[in-house]
TrEMBL record:
Coiled coil: none
Pfam families linked to this entry: AA_permease_2 (PF13520)
Species of provenance: Megasphaera cerevisiae DSM 20462
Protein name, per record: Amino acid permease
InterPro entries, alphabetized: AA/rel_permease1
């Protein structure tokens, strides 16, 4: 079994499987993908985590924390881009791991991504609920605490958080074109709001607020980077849309890299202005630091506009994360590692409706009944581990299949992938110990599911036992032949 758990699938097999049942609609280009990335990245990072990281970890050196996190993500994004262009299949890092490292590591990545997206969706929905309730209070409407707070904090259910998840899920079920259109509109609104903050705030920067610049030392800067890393989660969601992209070889790398560059520039500008407007310790008293900063200098109307922008920003984050999560579950189901039931594509909408419905159910329950600190803690560590494995997979596949056509090549291999591994490992080390322990428990649960179900039910295992449908087997055989014609080693077990 030890050898078999590292069995791989060829790239040709993955691509062939996307054509079954007619596949999904290919409607996205570079612009749509870039907007998806921005839609998922710009949100919680700017509107919530900037204040938390400045007050408790980085101080005015928050700018450096963002740069460190951006370097880690930038190296990982280059690795993602190589794979995305070479393996244009939904599933993101899970698929890349399957091709380069084998089924076991693919499962680990997939399980990490389930953790990342599910808890991130829940955390963002709870944050959305907080902003929504704040806007209602400003216009004289107060919802009962029992319906806006989780039981852990004295309520019954966080109903607004549950309802926004249901709404986002329904939009995603209707199709990627509808999801992309809604996301584009929301992204334009929130980018306008961020630009408004920069224009209003830059004239109120006081350099005295940047002293001391690094009050918590380098340890605080790196801890801050590990916390605000959450702000960059999202560019990887672009790669989950691979099967719905018109020209994935060109559009996917462009969408991933452009969205990351745009968001990094925005984060650095906002964090610099934010800590220059208000002494960093004052952010301890607020969960809405951008609106708080504008209120502090007298722009109350601006703070109200920012709150609306935050609602839009968090909505687009939810939309893209729910989209990405459903596509990962869809591909894992198609591979047999989770029940085939969730790999069904709706004949009318051409979307994985069952996967989307499962995500809606799980994240709705989590957001409705658990507090934000519990659901947010595990998001970063799952993503960082996935990034590490993807970076390692680039190095491995360069050795195993150097002749494979690559529409986009990560530069300076193995230097860039190694830097991605090192930076991500440092950020994992800087996370709280309790988060690391919970992550280990999550992995143990995942291993139990893999060895108890996934290993026996994967399509590779079924093919070896002769129980796989003839249509899929014949496709695999023809794709293996195609791979051999290219000089590729496409055997399942290595």
């Amino acid at each position: 079994m030890t050898k078999n758990i590292f069995r791989t699938k060829s790239i040709n097999e993955f691509i062939s499987e996307t054509k079954h049942d007619g596949g999904m609609n290919k409607v996205l280009g570079t612009f749509g993908l870039t907007m998806l990335g921005i839609g998922c990245i710009v949100g919680t990072g700017i509107f919530v985590l900037t204040g938390v990281a400045a007050a408790n970890y980085s101080g005015p050196a928050l700018i450096i924390s963002f740069i460190i996190a951006a370097i880690a993500c930038g190296c990982a994004a280059l690795c993602y881009s190589e794979f995305a262009a070479m393996v244009p299949v939904a599933g993101s890092a899970y698929t890349y791991g399957y091709v380069a490292l084998g089924e076991f590591w693919a499962w680990i990545i997939g399980w990490d991504l389930i953790l990342e997206y599910a808890f991130a969706i829940s955390a963002v929905a709870i944050g959305w609920s907080g902003y929504f309730n704040n806007i209602l209070m400003n216009i004289g409407i107060t919802l009962p605490k029992a319906l806006t707070v989780a039981p852990y904090n004295g309520g019954w259910i966080d109903l607004p958080a549950v309802l926004i998840i249901v709404l986002v899920s329904l939009i995603n079920i209707r199709g990627v074109q509808q999801s992309s259109l809604v996301n584009n509109v929301i992204v334009i609104i929130k980018l306008a709001v961020v630009a408004l903050f920069i224009v209003l705030g830059v004239g109120h920067v006081d350099a005295a607020n940047w002293v001391p610049f690094m009050p918590y030392g380098w340890s605080g800067v790196f801890s801050g980077a590990s916390i605000i890393f959450f702000a960059y989660i999202g560019f990887d969601a672009v790669s989950t849309a691979a099967e719905e992209v018109k020209n994935p070889q060109k559009d996917l790398p462009r969408g991933i890299i452009l969205s990351l560059i745009i968001c990094t520039i925005l984060y650095i500008a906002v964090s610099g202005i934010l800590t220059g407007m208000v002494p960093y310790l004052q952010f301890k008293a607020t969960a809405a630091p951008v609106a708080f900063a504008l209120q502090s200098v007298g722009y109350h109307w601006g703070a109200a506009v920012i709150s609306v922008g935050a609602i839009c920003g968090l909505t687009s984050v939810l939309l893209v994360m729910a989209f990405g999560q459903s596509r990962i579950l869809f591909v894992m189901s198609r591979d047999g590692l989770i029940p085939k039931f969730f790999g069904h594509i709706h004949p009318k909408y051409k979307t994985p409706v069952r996967s989307s419905s499962l995500i809606c159910l799980i994240t709705g329950i989590t957001a409705g009944f658990l507090p934000i600190n519990i659901v947010a803690e595990l998001t970063n560590i799952g993503t960082l581990c996935a990034f590490i494995i993807v970076a390692a997979a680039v190095i491995v596949l360069r050795k195993k299949a150097p002749e494979r056509p690559r529409a986009f090549k990560c530069p300076f291999v193995p230097v860039i992938p190694v830097l991605a591994i090192i930076f991500c490992a440092i950020l994992i080390f800087m996370l709280p110990g309790v988060t690391q322990i919970r992550f280990v428990v999550w992995l143990l649960i995942g291993l139990a599911i893999y060895f108890g179900y996934g290993y026996q039910h994967s399509i590779i295992s079924q093919a070896k036992r002769g129980t796989l449908s003839s249509s899929i087997e014949s496709a695999a055989v023809s794709d293996t032949a195609a791979g051999e014609a290219e000089g590729m080693d496409t055997t399942h077990t290595h």
